Amino acid sequence: MPNRIAFLLVPFLCFSSAFADGERDNNPEVVRRIPKAGVPVPEERANSLRAGLSELQGKIAQVQKVGDANAKALLPDVMIFERAVRVALDYDEFFSPKDIDKADALLVEGSARADQLLAGEPEWPNQSGLIVRGYVSRIDHTVQPYGLVVPKTYAFNHSVPTRCDLWFHGRGETLSEVNFIWDRMKNPGRYTPEHTIMLHPYGRYSNAFKFAGEVDVLEALEDAQKRYRIDEDRISVRGFSMGGAACWQFAVHYPDRWFAANPGAGFSETPQFLDFFQKETLNPTPWEKQLWNLYDCDKYAANLAHCPTIAYSGENDIQKQAADVMEAALKEHGIRLRHIIGAGMGHKIDDVSKRTIEKVMTTLADREHTSFPRNLRFQTHTLKYNRMYWLTVDALDDHWKPASIHLQPRFDESDSSKFDMRCSVDNISAFTVDFPAGTFSDDPEEDPDFPLPVALWLEVGNGKPNERILGEGPFSDGSARLQVHRSDDGKWCAGPPDDSLRKRHNLQGPIDDAFMDSFVFVRPTGKAANEAAGKWAEAELERAIEHWRRHFRGDARVVDDTDVTDELIESANLVLWGDPSSNSVMAKVADKLPVKWTDKQIVVGQKTYDAGHHAPILIYPNPLNQNRYVVFNSSFTFRDYAYLNNARQVPMLPDWAVVDLRTPPGNVWPGKVVAADFFDEQWQLKK
């Protein structure tokens, strides 16, 4: 692969301390609460806030009842103010007396917007400057905020597409909705490029924009694209500190979506960072080491060949480690990282570096974008991240191991009428090449590089003869498609893999993946067969509800097992609590799963565990709707100890586990994990 220069950039906005409290936060037995408890709210102020909330809630109800379609569509822009103040008041999250003053101002703003909707004259959708907006998330149906800086040059009355930079904020343990919205109403941020919309995602608090925080970024961008004319070819990702970590993550996992990435400081992977920054001694389980491959950006470094990246670090900043790790990883793929280093700087960016970075970003934004790179390299470890440009990886040989594909267009020397692609794959068993409309032409004079027909030349590298597979097209719109899979005998064939149960995009696990899409907690109404399992599941459910709100800033939907409808089965991942005796939905699916759970025992292959003091945790395609998951007795799998450092916030359990309930749940594990593993690519127990 030819050498390239990769670019990176730094935005600067950092709440609270840079990352964590260092070695003081290395004892999993002693974990401080995050977020911390708030300050007392005087009774008079609390009553005033309640009165203001009641008034705003009444106006929201009135819009919902009598408002027109446009008013209802804009209602999330009002609801964000109500929810921000309500949760801060209900859950003791005013972290200073000034936060109470901010809440007063937010209620005033929310009420003013509601009045505008009722009058049919909303003003904020057509205003430039600092604007806070909201959307309803598909994950838990809560309203989530995001901030915008709309340039004065943005024309609301004509259709010129506008550049958009996403800015990821730093770690902020007191970054409640009140504080986030207030800051987005007052602070334009470190970067405000000309003729550019700056989008500031909330990311559901302080999780380094991972898991539900990752989905928040994508949902906020999608919402902004509906409301503003954003140029899809000129969207970038930028961030500093924790936001720099997020920038690395989005750059390597979604490289074709950005014209550039600009990370600053932060971390880019888990094990080296925790050793270097946190001085933490790691003793990971085998599945933990494999699951690091979900978010460790150095394992996806080759993808940055398709995302220009310019990184920044302060010369004396310990978090320079993040870019150093990526620089070494990129070098292995023949890519030289463009790494701007602020002379004498600690954890901040200097003006000289800022000017250099902005000049590079402007140049990259103005260059012509291509949706069809002629030499595509793609790297992944999971079907969660399975596409780039015109390539989609449909199946892997083995999840969480390195998988790569290299596609090179070429002419067939023996037949000049054919367009071939040289292909090499590793740990991939099915993929699709889907060229968009306008890619090909049947007129050699118009487009001599792409004659008919399309064929793909596979070089599978496993000692078997190379095989040619003919694709479909080009069609009359200039599109073409080729879908291939490897059969059981090792031969590559045209067409998709068989439709049997298998791991596929957004249905590949691990347990945490269930909480990156619509989910509902299903509470048991019956009696558990074993008291220990029943009490444990009840406590874990209550903890899951609390911690979903605290750390992903949502309200988990909870229904009784007797109230699960066909609509819920169709639309949501079902997180089932209890056991097959207490939860009627669990009883319907339990005998259809590889892990068997009866009143007496849990059977995993050849091993059995006493159900009197053990319980299984697992994720599996829902037998009632195999396009969704069922989960047994688990929310997201990292616990209190991981809250102390964002690099620890990675999946802690694979696809299934058996927990010995005689060890109480703690700050790391939900009990003593006596067995755990991944299901294979057909969702069966591994041999």
Automatic annotation (TrEMBL):
Keywords: Signal. Residues 1-20 form the signal peptide. GO terms for molecular function: serine-type peptidase activity. GO terms for biological process: proteolysis. Residues 216-355 form the Peptidase S9 prolyl oligopeptidase catalytic domain. The keyword Signal applies. The keyword Translocase does not apply. This is Prolyl oligopeptidase family protein.
